Amino acid sequence: MSRIKSLFERKNKNVLNIYCTAGYPKADSTVRVIRALEKHGADIVELGMPYSDPLADGPVIQQSSTVSLGQGMTIKKLFEQLKDLRTQSNIPLILMGYMNPVIQYGFEKFCADAAAVGVDGLILPDLPEYEFETEYGAIIRKHGLDFIFLVTPETSDDRVHRLDSLSTGFLYAVSSSSTTGSDKNMADAGAYLERLEKMRLRNPVLVGFGIRDRASFQQAGTHANGAIIGTAFVKALQNSDDEERSVREFLAGVL
Amino acid sequence: MKKQTYTTPNEYGYYGSFGGAYIPEMLHRNVEELKTRYLDIINDPSFKKELDELLADYAGRPTPLYLAKRLSAQFGTNIYLKREDLCHTGAHKINNTIGQILLAEKLGKKRIIAETGAGQHGVATATVCALKGIQCIVYMGEKDIERQAPNVARMKMLGATVVPALSGSKTLKDATNEAIRDWINHPDDTHYIIGSVVGPHPYPDMVTLFQSVISKEIRAQLKEKTGTELPSSVVACVGGGSNAAGAFYHFLDEKEVELVAVEAAGLGVNSGQSAATSQLGRPGILHGSKSLLMQTEDGQVVEPHSISAGLDYPGIGPLHAHLFETGRAKFLSATDQEAVEAAFNLAKMEGIIPALESSHALSALTRLSFSKNDHVVVCLSGRGDKDLATYMKYIK
User: Can you tell me the distance from the alpha carbon of B342 to that of B262, in angstroms, rounded to the nearest whole number?
Assistant: First the structure.
C-alpha cells in the first residue's frame, strides 16, 4: 500500500501537508527540512521542483525557486539528495513541479528515478487531463506513483468527480481562484468545501492556498481531511540558518 | 473529431505534435469557455459584420499590396510589400486586438489584460479598450518599460494601466507569466488578449484566424494586379509568429507557394545572444502550449536576445513549430546587423522606414534566389517610428 494511502487509513482529520521548495533556503537544505518536518509533526511533505516560469505561483514561491535555481538546483541533483532519504525517513513525499523540466529530464526516467528514491506521488499542475489520460497517466501508474489533480471553486461538480476518479492519494482543493500566497482568505471557501464534502469523493481532500496558521488550518479541517501550507512556510524559511528551529517554531504555531 | 490540417488544429489544439492546453486547473473554466465558444462567435454573421467594419473604418484595411519597383530591380524579381505598417497603431497587431475585444464583449467580460514586450501589442490593446470603454491592464517587463518609454506613454494616454513585471528576467516572457497569473486571480470578469499565436488552445488558432485577413487580402490583391492569386513566396518575420501566421494562412495548403519564416539571430545563431528558436530550441512547454522552446538542458527557459523587442521571445507558436518540423515553411534567420542594413536599404530604395521586426524579413531577400517572373510577397508587419532610437545609433 502506498505511504499516502496508509497515512489516510491511520488519520483522516487534520492531516498537515507542508510545501517547501527543493534546494531552499540552501542548496543542501532539502533533506534537513524534510526530516525536521517529519520530526515536528507534519504528515506529508510536498517538495517543489524549482522552475524559471512557475505560472501558478505568487511572488514568495517564485522567489524561492529563483534562489534555488541560482544555487544550481536541478532534478538530477534533487534525486541525488533524496537517494538515502528512505533509510532515515518514512514521511509520505510528493514532488510538485511544472511539466517542462520534467519532460526534458525524460518523463519515464523521471517517474522511475522518483519511485526509486521513495517518492510517493506527483503534482504537476500544468499536466492536463487529456494528456494525462492519453500519454502520461499510464507511465505514472506503471511506476507506482500517486497523481494528485487540483480542483478549484470554479470546477463544476461533474469535473470534480472526473478529476477525483483520475487522482490517487488525495484530491487537492484550491481554496480560492488565485495563485499561491495571495491575500484572498479562507472565509469564502466554506460553502465550496462543504459542496466537495457532500459529493462523497473517492479520495481524501486536502485544502491548499490561503492556509497560513492555526486558525486557517482548523477552518480548512471542518469540511476536509486536512490542509496544505506552502507560502507561509517558505516565508518562515527565508534567511533561516537553522532549518530545524524554523520548522519547529513554524509547526508549533499551526498544530 | 475535427480533422487536423495546416490551417486547423485538432480538437485538443494540436498541430502535429505541437500545441495543446497545458494549463493549471485555475484557468480551466476560462480557457474551456473560449474553446467552446470562439468559433461560433467568430463565424456569427453579426460579429463578422462588426469586425469587417472596424477593420475597414478604424484600422484602415485593406492595407495596400505595393509593388516595390526599385527593390524588385535590386533583387531581379517582383517584390510586393504587404503594408501592415499602414494599419492604425502602426502594425498588424490591431487585427487581433479588434477581433478579441469584440469577442470579449460577446463573452460579457468587463476587464482586459494583455502582455507586451516592445509595447506594440500593449498599445493595440489599449487602443481597442479605449474604443470600447473597457478597463485595460497591460503587463510589461520592468526592463522593457525602461527601454520603451514612448509606448508606455501611449498606453497611459489611451487610459491603460501599465503594470511592471518584476519576476524572472523582467521582459516579455515574464510579462506573459504575470498576465496569466492575473487571469488566475480574476476568473470571472477578465479576458486575456494574447498578442501572438502562442498560449493554450484555442489562442494560437484564434489569433491566427484574426490575422488571416492579411493573406486573404494578399490573394485578392495579387489576383487583381497579376492575374494570379498565388505568389511564388511569402516572407515574414517570426517572434511568436502572429504576422507570419496571418500572411501564410491562406497559402498553407497551396504547396506551390514557398513560405519563408525569418527568425532573429541576434548577434549570431551560435553566439549565445540569439532568438532563433527553430535552430536553438527543443520541444518544450511554455505559457500553456507545447512548442519549440529555447531552454537549458535542465528545462529552464532561456532569455533570448534580439535587437528587435518584438522578436525577443524564447518560443514560437505551435503552428510554426509544426511548419518547421514538417518542412512546409523554410526557416531562415537574420542577425541584428543584417536587419538594420535591410531597414536602411528599404528606407533609401522605397522611402519606407520599416520596424526592426519586419527588417528581419526584408533581410532574408538577400539569401533567397528568385527568377525574374516570380511574385515575392514580404509582410511589412510594422513601421519603424518606434525603432528610431536604435536606428539613430547607425546613422553616420
Answer: 13
What percentage of chain A carries pLDDT values higher than 90?
93
CATH 3.90.226.10 fits B62-91+212-392, yes or no: no
**pLDDT value at residue A130:** 95
3-state SS, residue B279: helix
Chain A CB contacts of B286 under 8 Å are 53, 100
Q: Report the chain B residue with the minimal C-alpha distance to residue A163.
A: B25
Nearest to A209 by CA among A53, A35, A17: A17
| Tens of pLDDT, residues B186-238 | 988 999 999 999 999 999 999 999 999 999 999 999 999 999 999 999 999 99
Per the DSSP assignment, residues forming a β-bridge with B83 are B380
Instruction: Establish, for the pair of chains A and B, how many residue pairs have beta carbons separated by less than 8 Å.
Output: 108
Residues of A that are catalytic: 46, 57
Residue numbers of B between 59 and 88 with CB closer than 8 Å to A: none
Query: Among all chains, which residue has been given the C-alpha cell 484595411?
Result: B61
> Above 60 in pLDDT, residue B1?
no
- CB under 8 Å to A67, separation ≥6 — which residues? A24, A25
Nearest-neighbour CA in chain A from B272: distance (Å): 18
The answer on pLDDT for B131 being more than 70 is: yes
Do residues A20 and A229 lie in contact, with contact meaning Cβ atoms separated by under 8 Å?
no
Q: Could you tell me if B380 and B234 are in contact, meaning their C-beta atoms sit under 8 angstroms apart?
A: no
pLDDT digits (tens, 9 = 90+) for B324-347: 999 999 999 999 999 999 999 999
Q: Across the interface, do B168 and A56 touch by the CB < 8 Å criterion?
A: no
Does residue B24 sit at the A interface (CB-CB below 8 Å)? yes
**Cβ contacts of A254 within 8 Å, gap of 6 or more:** A16, A213, A214, A217, A229
Strand order in the sheet with B375-380: B65-67, B78-83, B375-380, B233-237, B258-266, B329-335
Distance between CA atoms of residues B160 and B384, nearest Å: 23
Per-residue b or e along B211-236, where b marks 16 or more CB atoms closer than 10 Å to that residue's CB: bbbbbebbbebbeeeeeebbbbbbbb
Q: Which residues of A touch B283 (CB under 8 A)?
A: 103
Question: What are the pLDDT digits (tens) for A36-82?
Answer: 999 999 999 999 999 999 999 999 999 999 999 999 999 999 999 99
- pLDDT in the model for residue B3: 56
- Containing B191, the helix (H) or strand (E) segment is strand B190-192
* CATH 3.40.50.1100 domain range(s) in chain B: 14-55+93-207, 62-91+212-392
Q: Could you give the domains of chain A?
A: 13-249 (3.20.20.70)
Give the closest of A103, A150, A184 to B24, CB-based.
A150
Multiple choice CATH, B14-55+93-207, 3.20.20.10, 3.40.50.1100, 2.40.10.270, 3.40.50.12580: 3.40.50.1100
ipTM exceeding the 0.90 mark: yes
A74 with B298: Cβ contact below 8 A: yes
